[in-house]
Write a structure and sequence with these properties.
It is a single chain. With 571 residues, the protein is α/β, with parallel strands linked by helices. Among the domains are: 5-93, Gyrase A, domain 2 (2-Layer Sandwich), CATH 3.30.1360.70; 172-251, no CATH class; 387-440, no CATH class; 444-563, Isoleucyl-tRNA Synthetase, Domain 1 (Orthogonal Bundle). Helix content is 49%, strand content 12%. The chain is built from 20 helices and 15 strands. It binds one RNA strand of 77 nucleotides through helix 2, strand 10, helix 12, helix 17 and helix 18.
RNA sequence: GCGCCUGUAGCUCAGUUGGAUAGAGCAACGGACUUCUAAUCCGUAGGCCGCAGGUUCGAAUCCUGCUAGGCGCGCCA
């Protein structure tokens, strides 16, 4: 494969560095990294390699830089290379040196920025996994959008991504759900019912109850013993909720490769097998845990439990696998689940969890290390909480108070694109104040319209060209070296940076960088647009500018696609 | 008490893994449409990068301590 100009320059420098290092006794090999300086006067690329080298060679950095420049063989496109400041090497390219990228972008189209890697590593990406006890809320939405964008990003960079949703359809919550629905069913039959505090209050419970009554005979439930009845209603209710959740997901354009039921782990005996395996490996013992710190537990009683020696693998305290009544804990099922992923061939797992599960990471990784020997698996990304505001005024979400805001309501109110883009504009580590009015506003405060407008604007120009009977030249016939204005140069630099951006975003699992990038790219375009009229008499220059616009539109479209946001041609 | 995340302009946030003079948007002020979309652009102003030490040629970035906010800390999920 043809090396990019940047790679050629990098290689040329690295060669010199290697030669210099060969003369001295060291095991350090500083790598040459080309950066794009903020200041224009600092050239197109800057290298700081002379600084780390200076220490090793025991010379001053400027001297080292001179030595490097004396020996290096740069490619032809390099115009000048100067030493500046404490020892930076600033490289200037000949005019139009990198404008070939426009032709590359048009040629590669939707693949520009992507790595075609047929041997890509398989990654199991688990996200959302909202409990099947109600509709998705806004906080789930953030994890969903981030997870889906990360899946797209990793896929673009050559990974084989398997998107998975873990359905927590076992455990006490399902009993509570079933009981809540049963109470509503009885109420709908005209019976006088009092609802305990523990029951789920939402209206969707009534809807589920109605649906069950429409399709099933009420008396058949009355005739069941309580255990059977709650089990039956539990299954029906989980199905209803999962149907609702899938609806919520499809509304924001998210689909999973697999929905994995926790219950199947229990029913198939996988959880018990796991516990037996751990027993056999002497990783379980009977013991008593100390009382929890930081909050007062009134009814704390020391109790003997079967404990997993997770402390041997980095955890702070050993963890119970069985409750007092002998049933498996959530933790037991969860490590059975992750073991199952491993057995299905995934050596690399990424989980996206809410911040409230942060304390859970160490124990799962410790367990996985014990079971598979894998380090730091699953890789867990914590998404911080979403605080909803309206016109800057926070309102608390509460199931009980009925001020619960579902994702579906928000998407309906502000639209899929705005929800998705807004959720992507911040790092996942920072808490997100999501303002409903701001997300709805179609003004500059809402970045999604800013970037979509850039795309639509380009198409307006292309439409105008078409209307005037101007045929778009073939990329190879365009003289791109005419694109010499400051704005064009900036825009081209942004386009050049896109593959590197994707690479770094994928490696760091930081899809938000795509959103930040698109905003910068859109700004560079808008700026260009104002200073450089495209449809002009100078035919050659016009074709060059048209090519720049076509390439820009392509990259905006590609990047928005990764975020799952549409790129309209008209607004 | 312990663990994880966060603290950058009045507000919301970036800051390319330690580089040169810390950047955007909003809000404020002043400009730019008989022109390819003004949902836009240009300019002015706004900063002890939470505080204090340390590491080095060089720190918003790395280390230590402190401080403020969020999340979590037995058989809930």
């Amino acid at each position: 494969m043809q090396l990019s100009l940047k790679e050629q320059i990098c290689q040329a420098l690295q060669h010199v560095v290697d030669v210099l290092l060969a003369d001295i006794d060291t095991n350090k090999t500083p790598a040459v990294v080309l950066t794009r300086p903020k200041q224009k006067e600092h050239g197109d690329y800057a290298v700081n390699i002379a600084m780390p080298l200076a220490g090793l060679l025991k010379q001053n950095p400027r001297q080292v830089a001179e030595t490097i420049l004396a020996k290096v063989q740069f490619p032809d496109a390099v115009d000048t290379a100067d030493i500046a400041g404490p020892g930076f090497i600033n490289i200037k390219l000949k005019a139009g040196g990198e404008t070939d990228i426009l032709k590359v972008i048009l040629e590669q189209a939707e693949h520009y920025g992507c790595l075609d890697n047929s041997n890509g590593e398989a990654v199991n990406l688990e996200f959302v996994s909202a409990n099947p006890t109600g509709p998705m809320h806004v906080g789930h939405g953030r994890g969903a959008v981030v997870g889906d964008a990360l899946a797209n990003l990793l896929t673009a960079r050559g990974y084989k991504v398997h998107k998975e949703y873990y359905i927590n359809d076992a455990g006490n919550q399902i009993g509570v759900l079933a009981n809540s629905v049963w109470l509503r069913m009885q109420e709908l039959q005209g019976m006088d019912i009092t609802f305990p505090d523990s029951a789920y209050p939402g209206d969707y419970i009534i809807e589920i109850a109605k649906d069950i009554l429409n399709t099933h005979d009420f008396s058949s439930f009355q005739n069941m013993d309580e255990h059977t009845r709650l089990k039956e209603i539990g299954v029906l209710s989980v199905d209803a909720n999962m149907a609702m959740i899938r609806q919520d997901l499809s509304q924001i354009g998210i689909a999973f490769d697999q929905y994995f039921s926790e219950k199947t782990l229990h029913n198939s005996g996988k959880v018990n097998q796991l516990i037996e395996k751990l027993e056999a490996d002497d990783l379980i013992y009977t013991g008593t845990l100390p009382p929890p710190k930081g909050k007062e537990v009134i009814d704390y009683k020391p109790v003997e439990q079967r404990l997993f020696r997770t402390t041997d693998f980095g955890d702070d305290v050993d963890r119970p696998l069985q409750k007092q009544d002998g049933t498996a804990t959530y933790f037991a099922a969860d490590i059975a689940y992750h073991s199952d992923k491993f057995e299905r061939g995934f050596k690399h797992m990424i989980d996206i969890w809410g911040a409230d599960h942060g304390g859970y990471i160490t124990r799962v990784q410790a367990a996985m290390k014990a079971l598979t020997g894998l380090e730091k698996q699953p890789e867990v990304l914590l998404v911080q909480m979403v605080n909803l505001t309206r016109n800057g005024v926070p309102f608390k979400m509460s199931k009980r108070a009925g001020t619960f805001v579902t994702l579906s309501e928000v998407v309906e109110e502000v639209g899929k694109d705005a929800v998705r883009f807004n959720f992507m504009t911040r790092r996942i580590e920072s808490q997100f104040d999501f303002d409903l009015e701001a997300a709805k506003a179609k003004d500059a405060e809402n970045p999604v319209y800013y970037v979509q407008y850039a795309h639509a604007r380009i198409h307006a120009v292309l439409r105008k060209a078409e209307a005037e009977g101007i045929a778009l030249a073939k990329a190879d016939d365009v003289n791109t070296s005419l694109l010499t204005s400051d704005e064009a140069a900036k825009l081209i630099k942004m386009l050049l940076a896109y593959p590197e951006l994707l690479d770094s975003a994928a490696n760091r699992r930081e899809p938000y960088r795509i959103a930040t990038y698109i905003m910068q790219l859109a700004a560079a375009f808008h700026s260009f647009y104002h200073k450089n009229r495209v449809i002009i008499d100078d035919h050659e220059l016009m074709q060059a500018r048209l090519l720049l616009l076509r390439a820009t539109a392509q990259v905006i479209k590609n990047a928005l696609a990764l975020l799952g946001v549409s790129a309209p041609e008209k607004m």
